Amino acid sequence: MSVDFNALAQQFCNFYYDQFDKDRSQLGNLYRDHSMMTFESTQLQGSRNIVEKLVSLPFRKVAHRISTLDAQPASENGDVLVMVTGELLVDEEQNAQRYSQCFHLIPESGSYFVLNDIFRLNYG
Amino acid sequence: MSVDFNALAQQFCNFYYDQFDKDRSQLGNLYRDHSMMTFESTQLQGSRNIVEKLVSLPFRKVAHRISTLDAQPASENGDVLVMVTGELLVDEEQNAQRYSQCFHLIPESGSYFVLNDIFRLNYG
């Protein structure tokens, strides 16, 4: 299976952060029951738990900005590994927080879901 | 296959950075011909090219320090995904540089090799 993994990763991340910033309660479709997320050392499994965690984060408004995005094929089946570094701004804060995030994307029926998701704020 | 992926990831990263800091020309055994590395947007494939790149980096002394390390199982075959954030100090520099790195580890004959490796310095 040949896939332009760089374009796919860029497209996925644009969609992901756009949806996150607009309404993060709608991200559940991107995860499956066996998907895993580690959010600042909290380990979660399954679409429902992951979205519950994201929705519970203590901010109303959030805006992600990607600084770097790197992608690689992660198997012969079309899996794609993405690492993002970026900044996010919450609510009325003036100072952006830097973060790193890693996604492992799995092809399914012409689209992709997130099998692995690791998120960390980068403290200065 | 059951594996303590957190312990495995920690052990791998300790070994990797220890070897990197002592003599990075010896890291080739951890990669295979189809392994990929993205180093600050340069895409490399294969153990030889990866080690050549690492050896060519313009510093003599380097010391990595892990700040956060998160791991997840990345398949049913024992693959492990690791994301590290950390700091590194080169030569006689007084200020550490922050970095993010992602490893996709594949089990092989009782050990692991690196299929995917993505490295980025985090500029402030």
TrEMBL record, chains A, B:
Protein name (database record): Nuclear transport factor 2
Domain of life, source organism: Eukaryota
Example of a GO biological process term: mRNA transport
Stored Pfam families: NTF2
GO cellular component annotations of the record: cytoplasm; nuclear envelope
Role summary: Has a role in nuclear-cytoplasmic transport of proteins and mRNAs.
Domain NTF2: residue ranges: 8-121
Gene3D superfamilies in the record: 3.10.450.50
InterPro entries documented for this protein: NTF2, NTF2-like_dom_sf, NTF2_dom, Nuclear_transport_factor_2_euk
